[in-house]
Amino acid sequence: MLLPIGAAAQSDGFNFPDDINFLQQPDPNLRRATARVNGNIITGTDVDHRVALIVASNEAQIPPEQMQSLRLQVLRSLIDETLQVQEAVAQEMEVTAEEVNESYASYALEQFNRTPEQMDEFLTSIGASPRTMKRQIQGQLAWERLLRRNVTPFINVSAEEVNELLAQMQASRGQFEYRIGEIYLSANPNTRDQVRANAQQIVNLLRQGGSFVAAAQTYSEASSKVTGGDLGWLQLERLQNPTMEGAVREMVPGQLVGPLEIPGGFSIIYLIDKRQIGMSDPRDAVLSLKQVSIEFAPGTTETEAQLRAEQFASAVEQFQGCGDADARAAAIGATVQQNDQMSARDLPEALQTLLLRMNVGEATPPFGDLQNGVRVLLLCGRDDPPAQAQAPQFDQLMNSLEQERINRRAQSYLRDLRRDAVIDYD
């Protein structure tokens, strides 16, 4: 006999009862490991290999309690890739094995300085496989090809829109713009809790030292996943989302926030950088630096290291600028390295702040530890950026607006593919 389900409630066109009574109780321990997507099989081995690749890419240990969520997210990513490849075939835009192999060879050389054969060995050694990497490449190439033909030609940005934006930016001179990385996960009322949990697992992984770029390329459902989630430089109003605007406004570069619930799903936000429109940024200064460092021999105790570090600090106080640094460093058994083209922006934030307040010839306080030794940086010179930053160019703004619209259309395209797919879970 059916149990009473109560009065129906309206929610986005669906009729939901006030009291949900399941005719069969869902099994919380049941997890789908494999799937058949429009007839194409995704095996447990496919999932295992992709998980191994993610773990190696993020260089972080994943706690056992998070592994199941990671596997579910990987399965969803593999389903999306399969749909993208199938759509490319259906549109007679199939990515060939030769194209995949060429991209694989380029990736191995550019990212790892390895030959394809060496890359094969590396992937096998971490529990992944060349096949899983090539499958990911095939999906990316297929999706890029589909967007170029079915989405990009139908995106229109007029010269009037760009000129209006240029005028707004001129009027906004001195205000901040932000370079944002985003990982977007779609959700609906039925999947909201699970997607939130998955997003939190990704956040935990990133806070343990995982790569944001690798995570975005693996998990994000936005088309910006191909750029590692990088949305480029933009003002907060262009996010068109009060939740994201409020969060980013309070962030500092390098900070991670999320998961944030937004219409249609959840976002994980990483603030890559921020700057003032039309104004020079002190962090664009080019510094001439000397690093003076000492190392500790194996077996050195903490007490011995502390004494040596104090002696080093006292000796550095006697340095008279960069001119006599080499001779004084040699006298205390320290080594010297020099870089005359170091952008302040490329330094850790703590060193950026410190060095940009220093005068030429001054040294930072010593920093380091027993394992890595102790060092100081001497500021030998500084070339500041122009007083006024170069204004954005017309073509740059047009490309930025086009990419925003492509991203939104691509998300809709992928939702349509999922909706029409026949997916069986084993």
Overview in brief:
This protein has 426 residues and is an alpha+beta fold.
Task: Describe the protein in words.
This protein has 3 domains: 35-150, Porin chaperone SurA, peptide-binding domain (Triger factor/SurA peptide-binding fold), CATH 1.10.4030.10; 171-279 and 390-425, Chitinase A, domain 3; 282-383, Roll (Chitinase A, domain 3), CATH 3.10.50.40. Helices cover 45% and strands 20% of the residues. The protein has 13 helices and 13 strands. It has helices spanning 44-58, 64-90, 97-112, 116-125, 130-150, 159-171, 192-207, 212-219, 242-249, 302-317, 325-331, 349-355, 394-420, and strands at 8-11, 14-17, 35-37, 40-42, 176-186, 230-234, 256-262, 265-276, 286-294, 335-343, 367-369, 373-383, 423-425. The strands form 4 sheets. Strands 6-5-8-7 form a 4-stranded antiparallel β-sheet. Strands 10-9-12-11 form a 4-stranded antiparallel β-sheet. A 3-stranded antiparallel β-sheet has the order 4-3-13. Helix 1 packs across helix 2, helix 2 (64-90) packs across helix 5 and helix 2 (64-90) packs across helix 7 (192-207). The longest helix has 27 residues, at 64-90. The two termini are 30 Å apart. The model is unreliable at 1-12 and 26-32 (pLDDT under 50).
